[in-house]
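Appendix B, example 12.
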Amino acid sequence: MTTLTRAMAGTIIAAMVVVTGAVQAVSLTDAERAQICAEAADRYRQMAGKAPADEPFVVVLMYRDIYCPANLTVRQGTTSRWINVDRRTSHSVWFKEAGRPESDRIFPEEFVEMTVDWPPGEYPYLCGPHAADGMTGRLTVVGR
Protein backbone atom coordinates (compact mmCIF):
# COMPACT_ATOMS: atom_id res chain seq x y z
CA MET A 1 0.00 0.00 0.00
CA THR A 2 1.21 3.50 -0.72
CA THR A 3 1.20 6.16 1.98
CA LEU A 4 -1.77 7.84 0.32
CA THR A 5 -3.73 4.58 0.21
CA ARG A 6 -2.99 3.91 3.88
CA ALA A 7 -4.11 7.41 4.81
CA MET A 8 -7.30 7.01 2.80
CA ALA A 9 -8.00 3.64 4.41
CA GLY A 10 -7.56 5.23 7.84
CA THR A 11 -9.98 8.01 6.90
CA ILE A 12 -12.55 5.49 5.70
CA ILE A 13 -12.26 3.50 8.94
CA ALA A 14 -12.55 6.69 10.99
CA ALA A 15 -15.64 7.71 8.99
CA MET A 16 -17.22 4.32 9.62
CA VAL A 17 -16.65 4.70 13.36
CA VAL A 18 -18.24 8.15 13.32
CA VAL A 19 -21.23 6.89 11.34
CA THR A 20 -21.63 3.85 13.59
CA GLY A 21 -21.54 6.08 16.65
CA ALA A 22 -24.16 8.38 15.13
CA VAL A 23 -26.45 5.47 14.33
CA GLN A 24 -26.29 4.24 17.91
CA ALA A 25 -27.02 7.75 19.18
CA VAL A 26 -30.24 7.87 17.17
CA SER A 27 -31.93 4.90 18.83
CA LEU A 28 -35.53 5.72 19.59
CA THR A 29 -37.33 5.61 22.89
CA ASP A 30 -40.63 3.73 23.02
CA ALA A 31 -42.46 7.08 23.12
CA GLU A 32 -40.61 8.37 20.04
CA ARG A 33 -41.33 5.12 18.17
CA ALA A 34 -45.01 5.33 19.15
CA GLN A 35 -45.19 8.93 17.89
CA ILE A 36 -43.60 8.01 14.55
CA CYS A 37 -45.96 5.03 14.17
CA ALA A 38 -48.96 7.27 14.94
CA GLU A 39 -47.79 9.62 12.17
CA ALA A 40 -47.41 6.63 9.85
CA ALA A 41 -50.96 5.48 10.63
CA ASP A 42 -52.25 9.01 9.88
CA ARG A 43 -50.40 8.96 6.54
CA TYR A 44 -51.96 5.58 5.75
CA ARG A 45 -55.46 6.91 6.55
CA GLN A 46 -54.81 9.81 4.16
CA MET A 47 -53.71 7.39 1.43
CA ALA A 48 -56.20 4.56 1.90
CA GLY A 49 -59.17 6.27 3.52
CA LYS A 50 -59.16 3.88 6.47
CA ALA A 51 -57.05 2.75 9.38
CA PRO A 52 -54.48 -0.02 8.88
CA ALA A 53 -56.38 -2.18 11.40
CA ASP A 54 -59.49 -2.01 9.16
CA GLU A 55 -57.77 -3.88 6.33
CA PRO A 56 -58.47 -7.59 5.64
CA PHE A 57 -54.72 -8.29 5.83
CA VAL A 58 -51.96 -7.52 8.33
CA VAL A 59 -50.35 -4.13 7.65
CA VAL A 60 -46.79 -3.11 8.43
CA LEU A 61 -46.06 0.53 7.65
CA MET A 62 -42.64 1.78 6.57
CA TYR A 63 -42.03 5.35 7.67
CA ARG A 64 -39.04 7.46 8.73
CA ASP A 65 -36.75 4.43 8.58
CA ILE A 66 -38.75 2.22 10.93
CA TYR A 67 -41.32 -0.54 10.55
CA CYS A 68 -44.65 -0.04 12.35
CA PRO A 69 -45.07 -2.37 14.12
CA ALA A 70 -41.47 -3.55 14.36
CA ASN A 71 -42.46 -6.87 15.93
CA LEU A 72 -45.38 -8.82 14.58
CA THR A 73 -46.89 -12.23 15.31
CA VAL A 74 -48.97 -13.97 12.63
CA ARG A 75 -50.43 -17.42 12.04
CA GLN A 76 -49.20 -19.52 9.13
CA GLY A 77 -51.19 -18.63 6.03
CA THR A 78 -51.71 -14.98 7.04
CA THR A 79 -51.39 -12.38 4.30
CA SER A 80 -49.15 -9.50 5.36
CA ARG A 81 -48.56 -6.27 3.47
CA TRP A 82 -45.58 -3.92 4.00
CA ILE A 83 -46.60 -0.43 2.80
CA ASN A 84 -44.31 2.55 2.27
CA VAL A 85 -46.04 5.65 3.65
CA ASP A 86 -42.94 7.84 3.40
CA ARG A 87 -43.11 10.71 0.94
CA ARG A 88 -39.65 10.60 -0.63
CA THR A 89 -37.69 7.44 0.05
CA SER A 90 -37.80 3.80 -0.96
CA HIS A 91 -37.57 0.83 1.37
CA SER A 92 -37.38 -2.95 1.09
CA VAL A 93 -38.25 -6.03 3.11
CA TRP A 94 -35.50 -8.61 3.41
CA PHE A 95 -35.61 -11.78 5.48
CA LYS A 96 -31.86 -12.10 5.01
CA GLU A 97 -31.14 -14.55 7.86
CA ALA A 98 -33.85 -16.87 6.50
CA GLY A 99 -32.13 -16.85 3.10
CA ARG A 100 -35.02 -15.11 1.36
CA PRO A 101 -34.33 -12.62 -1.44
CA GLU A 102 -34.67 -8.91 -0.76
CA SER A 103 -37.86 -7.39 -2.15
CA ASP A 104 -37.69 -4.89 -4.97
CA ARG A 105 -37.52 -1.29 -3.78
CA ILE A 106 -40.89 -0.16 -2.47
CA PHE A 107 -41.43 3.47 -3.40
CA PRO A 108 -43.85 5.87 -1.66
CA GLU A 109 -47.41 4.56 -1.62
CA GLU A 110 -46.32 1.16 -2.97
CA PHE A 111 -46.33 -2.14 -1.11
CA VAL A 112 -45.08 -5.70 -1.07
CA GLU A 113 -47.43 -8.46 0.03
CA MET A 114 -46.82 -12.04 1.03
CA THR A 115 -48.74 -14.94 2.45
CA VAL A 116 -46.62 -16.24 5.29
CA ASP A 117 -46.51 -20.02 4.92
CA TRP A 118 -43.21 -20.56 6.72
CA PRO A 119 -42.66 -22.96 9.59
CA PRO A 120 -43.35 -21.56 13.06
CA GLY A 121 -40.45 -19.51 14.40
CA GLU A 122 -38.94 -16.05 14.61
CA TYR A 123 -37.81 -14.32 11.43
CA PRO A 124 -35.85 -11.09 11.72
CA TYR A 125 -36.00 -8.83 8.69
CA LEU A 126 -34.50 -5.55 7.57
CA CYS A 127 -34.68 -2.77 5.04
CA GLY A 128 -31.74 -3.15 2.66
CA PRO A 129 -31.15 0.59 2.19
CA HIS A 130 -31.72 1.48 5.86
CA ALA A 131 -30.53 -1.46 7.96
CA ALA A 132 -27.52 0.55 9.14
CA ASP A 133 -30.01 3.17 10.37
CA GLY A 134 -31.71 0.53 12.50
CA MET A 135 -34.65 -0.26 10.21
CA THR A 136 -35.27 -3.83 11.32
CA GLY A 137 -38.23 -5.91 12.36
CA ARG A 138 -39.14 -9.36 13.60
CA LEU A 139 -41.91 -11.60 12.32
CA THR A 140 -43.00 -14.41 14.61
CA VAL A 141 -44.93 -17.16 12.85
CA VAL A 142 -47.16 -19.46 14.91
CA GLY A 143 -48.97 -22.62 13.74
CA ARG A 144 -52.44 -22.54 12.29
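Strands lie at 58-63, 66-68, 71-75, 78-84, 111-116, 121-126, 136-142. Confidence is low (pLDDT under 50) at residues 1-25.
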